[in-house]
Amino acid sequence: MEKLTLYRKRLIPNECIPLKDDILVSRNEDVIVTKWNTLNPKTAFQYGASCYFLKKGIKVSKFYRADGSLFCWYCDIVRYDFSEQDTVLTVTDLLADVILYSDGSVKVSDLDELAEAFEQGLISSEELILSLKQLNDLLTTIYENRFSQMQAELNLLGL
After folding, report:
1. Which of 12, 103, 108, 129 has its CA 20 to 30 A from that of 93?
2. Which is it for strands 5-10 and 88-101: parallel, antiparallel or unpaired?
3. pLDDT digits (tens, 9 = 90+) for 68-94
């Protein structure tokens, strides 16, 4: 598999971190799958796997506790910037998140940060609109009981 360098870019706080320890599991033109340990120690979860849906602007991650039990599914609304020449994928977090817990509850979070980023000029109106549309698409997928199709990418790989 061709080498790929991943970066996670956040707007709040402003940072761009190389995900140098993430392990690339699979890659095609639509989806990239990685597995990883947390960058900073967490008490709620310790490791996981992520599926980057390149055409949807969504990153779906499966978070695991230290004992191997599922903590949650965490969905980031993102923008992808790929440098083919350098084989670098920069994933910019567009702040809106959706968390699906094992009890079936769903939480939408960080919309306040999305508004703050727009107010501070950290994102353009186009990025704000993109984030909201991608969030709506994800929520529609969840509410129409089609999220299992997104989960399947990780589940089929045993992640």
Report:
1. 103
2. parallel
3. 999 999 999 999 998 877 789 999 999
Contacts of 16 (CB under 8 A, 6+ apart): 7, 8, 9, 10, 90
Q: Say how far apart CA 95 and CA 75 lie, in whole Å.
A: 10
Encoding tokens for residue 45?
A: 């979860």
Tokens of 140: 């529609």
DSSP assignment string, the chain: ----EEEEEETTTTEEEE-TTPEEEEE-SSEEEEEEE-SS--SS--EEEEEEETTTTEEEEEEE-TTS-EEEEEEEEEEEEEETTTTEEEEEEEEEEEEEETTS-EEEE-HHHHHHHHHTTSS-HHHHHHHHHHHHHHHHHHHTT-HHHHHHHHHTTT-
Over residues 96-113, the mean pLDDT reads 95
Tokens representing residue 102 in the block? 């094992």
Q: What contacts 102, CB < 8 A, 6 or more positions away?
A: 70, 71, 72
Q: Please tell me whether the overall predicted TM-score, pTM, comes out greater than 0.90 for this model.
A: yes
